[in-house]
Amino acid sequence: MCGIIGFIGKIKANEIVLDGLKHLEYRGYDSCGVSMITLSDIIVKKDVGKIDEVHARLNFLEPASNIIISHTRWATHGGITTYNAHPHLDCKKEITVVHNGIIENYKEIKKYLIEKGHKFKSETDTEVVPHLIEEEINKGKKFEEACASIIKKIRGSSALVIGKKGVEKIIGIKIGSPLVVGVSEFGNFIASDIPAFLKYTKNVIFVKDYEMVIASKDKVRVYEVLKNGRIKKVKKKVYTIDWNVEKAEKGSFQHFMIKEILEQVDAIKLASMQDREKLESFAENIKNYKNLFFLGAGSSYHASLVGKYLFSKIAKTTVVPILASEFIHYKDLINDESLIIAISQSGETYDVLEAVKFAKKVGAKILSIVNVNGSSLTWESDDYLLMNVGPEIGVAATKTYTAEIVILSLISYALSKRLEEGKKRLEYLQNIIYNLTAENRRKEIEGIARFLKDKKSIFVIGRGILYPTAMEGALKIKEISYIHAEAFAGGELKHGTLSLIEKGVPAIVLVDEETKDSILSNAHEIKTREGVIIGVSPFYNEIFDYFIKVPECGYENAVSHVIPLQLLSYYIAVSKGLDPDKPRNLAKSITVK
Ligand code: G6P
Predict the structure, then answer these.
(1) Residue 245: pLDDT above 90?
(2) Which CATH number goes with the domain that contains 428?
(3) Is 588 among the catalytic positions?
């Protein structure tokens, strides 16, 4: 996805905006750009590359300005080129726009605008926006009115920040993609996400879909754009968020990912700090519905698979996890007797939101587990539990994956009226994770990572709760080290995958008390074909070529066994010279189809 940030204030803010943009780089990093807006000019600087590289070439600090909009891109429409980088301009170079999302009907709009004489420079969907606004202004509308009018014209999901030469205002529009406002004494921010301005203000206004924000240097007004195109002022509360600034900073760590892996000791504690009443009301709701579904994408989907196991074992409750992007194919199962638990770090994943919107329409109840308060999913849900673990910046989910499992585990204990027992177990888990992430353990895993780094393919196998754990481990390896990694339920190996095993092919085998006999027998099948076995296990077995010792934690094995896999993927990426925080082609929050 893309990251957008705009600032208008009493001070020259190039450095602040640049810093804010860097905090959004996890959302996209193939190109970036900045518009400095003055009364007489708009200076656009943009190019292909990560923010530091482009800034080193173009110097985003000049000219100093108090009105700036900027963008970091994850390409969707149009290749990775300087022209396609944002901000975009209209023909007269008076209107400048940054955008996150996709304008589905941009081709028709572009055709119409070309017929009207507009000249385009890029292949992007975004570029239609400044030209559309220009067209509306040509027809006699004021800047604000022209911006409001485009809301009805563009389809798809979008978050936009718009500036105009000679106008001391910036305008934000939210239709389906994330947008928040930061309010401070020295000026106001409109951005994709809170970490963009967290260092400068904790005062936040959450924006809903079809709302338009008009920010000037000392005021923020929010309007709802009505179906008839009129705007209606909305009274908004300014929230003070309790996210810790340090959580959005790398500090002395080389990467966010390793910082966030180590933060998991805290994450377990923070995610466990749920309001008892709320947890119990979640559990009550679950009991009142006939059909229960989990919904998630990526790591959040894997957490839901762990949740399915926990619900079945702890609460004897049946739940069907569905991949958010596949949800619509199961729409016939959803009705007013359905309860959906949507799981999402960002609360902005397009597929999750689309599925939730559909489920709501047919009368399903929506509960969610979210990290980002004020995100779209929180608005769409009947109720939600927050992960409380602060911003996660590394593209690969680590501490939020663990937080999701912690909350799912608490819900299942609440369902079986054994919440205290669940909490105790999670307290114990904290010590375990502390030891598992200690320096000597990390060194050990770094050594194994050096062995794996040149492999073409890695298999990860597990059974029971360790099967979704294997899936999460394989995903981590794929996304940041670019090695093909595949997870299998141990018993499935013989149904096809075994043909891929030959001399030297590494297999990570996840072992626990419950599954030890069967999974070790699967490991033997690999060893017989000269595969290399990396055992992640509470005990040693002679079959292991490498051994990562983890304690036996029962239901919490889903967390204790995933930590070495996260570390392994991190060290493989680092030893290959890759940046684990910014894996190629990926972004943290996927707000498109
Ligand atoms: C992206 C991220 C993944 C994440 C997935 C779901 O693909 O790169 O790390 O698991 O989205 O994100 P969510 O915010 O809904 O949990």
Answers:
(1) no
(2) 3.40.50.10490
(3) yes
Residue 493 scores a pLDDT above 90: no
Same-domain status, 377 and 451: no
In the chain, the percentage of residues whose pLDDT exceeds 70 is 100
Going from the Cα of 570 to the center of ligand 1, the distance in angstroms, rounded, reads 17
- For residue 425, the model assigns a pLDDT of 96
* Burial class of 142 by CB neighbour count within 10 A (0 to 12, 13 to 18, 19+): exposed
Q: Answer yes or no: 2 catalytic.
A: yes
Torsion angle, alpha carbons of 468, 469, 472, 474, to 10: -100
433: which 2 tokens?
């994770």
Inter-residue contact 87 to 35 (CB < 8 Å): yes
Same domain, 308 and 160: no
433-472 burial, b at 16+ Cβ within 10 Å, e below that, comes to beebbeeebbebbbebbeebbebeebbbbbbbbbbbbbbb
Assess whether 432 and 456 both reside in one domain: no
Q: Which domain holds residue 339?
A: 259-437
Nearest atom in ligand 1 to 296's CA: 15
Q: Would you state the pLDDT for residue 525?
A: 94
Per-residue pLDDT of 440-473, as tens digits, reads 999 999 999 999 999 999 999 999 999 999 999 9
